[in-house]
Design goal:
Layout: E1 4-9, H1 16-24, E2 48-49, E3 67-72, E4 84-96, H2 99-108, H3 134-150, E5 154-162, E6 168-170, H4 172-179, H5 193-206
Parallel strand pairs: 1-3
Antiparallel strand pairs: 2-5, 3-4, 4-5, 4-6
Length: 211
């Protein structure tokens, strides 16, 4: 049976630096991940999920047909009330044993390598294209290289839902209505099909409202 996980990440627009990066670089979205190796690789037709961000807490536990609901970390995002944005729902299309197999799959199918696929020649973004400082970028790069070796499983996904242009807000009141609380997000929690359905209904309806 497929598992559904609720996963948070920090988008470029979380910081003024990230907003500037998105404004100045063609092909960058405010709601792409702000790392030097964005996780997940939402710019892809088939986004990849690896262990770079959460080590053994998520990517190595996934199996085919699992579903990941990606929301931003909490911030104002131009509104008066802090909230989350529901950006994507990804279906795990296949799991691969390592990053090299993932790179071969992307290239074979005519896709550019996502930055979170750690193979020779696929360098991370510089700190100028990340919300991280130069010092933190160097530390992160070393950490990612280690994690890619320690937890090599790479998951190729297909978007079931994706809105990187103007994702809908999810407020605390929505979480309390659906979950009875604001779920802890440090360890991506399991959610039910019913909870996923309610989140998606909110996201779809609010796409057409002024937020």
């Amino acid at each position: 049976m497929a598992n559904i996980r609720l996963v948070s990440y920090t988008p470029l627009c979380f910081t003024p630096k990230g907003k500037k990066i998105a404004d100045q670089n063609v092909g960058f979205s405010y709601f792409y991940d702000g790392s030097i190796r964005p996780e997940p690789s939402l710019e892809q037709d088939f986004p990849g999920i690896s262990s770079l961000c959460r080590a053994n807490k998520l990517a190595p536990t996934l199996k085919k047909d699992d579903i990941l609901v990606y929301i931003t970390n909490k911030n104002y995002y131009g509104l008066e009330e802090k909230h989350w944005k529901l950006v994507a729902v990804l279906w795990v299309n296949q799991t691969l044993d390592n990053h090299l197999e993932a790179a071969q799959w992307y290239l074979k199918n005519g896709y550019k390598l996502p930055k979170n696929c750690v193979v020779a020649g696929n360098e991370p973004y510089s700190s100028e294209k990340s919300i991280l400082s130069k010092k933190k970028s160097k530390i992160a790069s070393n950490s990612y290289n280690i994690r890619a070796k320690d937890y090599p499983q790479y998951n190729i996904c297909k978007p079931v839902f994706k809105n990187i242009d103007n994702p809908s807000p999810i407020f605390e009141s929505d979480f309390f209505k659906i979950f009875g609380k604001v779920p802890g997000l440090q360890m991506p929690p399991f959610i039910t099909w019913s909870q996923l359905d309610e989140l998606l209904q909110i996201a779809i309806v609010r796409q057409y409202e002024k937020y």
